[in-house]
Write a structure and sequence with these properties.
The protein contains seven helices and no strands. The protein is mostly helical.
Length: 205
């Protein structure tokens, strides 16, 4: 039967239990997001990226040479860490096809929105750090330092187990081992060796 012009449209009622369940889910998504934001290595790396990007502008052209050198080495190390983070996070999708959908569900996001967030959080920072004018070449020592910092964070965040199920999603121990191997290899070797520098310096520490 067609609805009369003066008849208000029917709006399905939502029970108190459904509203409560929706609220609890929203709180769960928010709690997980805040937990991951607080303890995620990407957060600390983003703070470091921001610091080394902003500091030269705050200090100005009169900064001492020692500080310039320190910032240059910091940028080189952070470049390795940033690219390593992007490599290992996206490698998770190829190792475990369920990882991204599960993280998206845990955040309360659709998969397309999650991929967009991944682009903003993990990929765009790479585009920033590779445009930096690095005063010193990126060398194996910078990659090693980035890997050590990443591993130290992993040990702290996981209470020594190196299993980051609470920050991301549960994965088998062997999968975490593979992901840590990818992270260390990317930071220690892939980034330093792929960076454009004089060929004679390839294996220079």
């Amino acid at each position: 039967m067609r609805q009369g012009l003066g008849t208000a449209p029917h709006i399905p009622s939502v029970s108190k239990e459904e509203r409560t369940l929706h609220t609890e889910r929203a709180r769960g998504h928010r709690a997980y997001f805040l937990y991951a934001l607080k303890y995620g290595f990407t957060t600390y790396n983003a703070l470091a990226v921001t610091a080394v990007a902003v500091l030269p502008h705050l200090i100005g052209a009169d900064s001492p040479p020692q500080l310039d050198s320190l910032l240059a080495h910091a940028r080189a190390t952070i470049t390795c860490a940033t690219l390593g983070i992007a490599c290992v996070f996206n490698a998770a999708l190829f190792i475990d096809r369920t990882s991204f959908p599960r993280i998206a569900a845990r955040l309360g996001l659709t998969l397309p929105v999650f991929h967009l967030a991944n682009l903003v959080v993990h990929v765009l920072p790479c585009m920033l750090v590779v445009t930096w004018s690095v005063a010193v070449p990126i060398k194996l020592a910078h990659g090693a330092l980035a890997a050590v910092l990443h591993l130290r964070w992993g040990a702290w965040a996981s209470s020594g187990s190196m299993l980051l199920d609470e920050i991301y999603v549960p994965l088998p121990r062997a999968t975490w081992a593979r992901l840590w191997t990818i992270a260390v290899a990317a930071e220690c070797l892939l980034v330093p060796l792929a960076w454009p520098w004089p060929p004679a310096d390839y294996m220079t520490l």
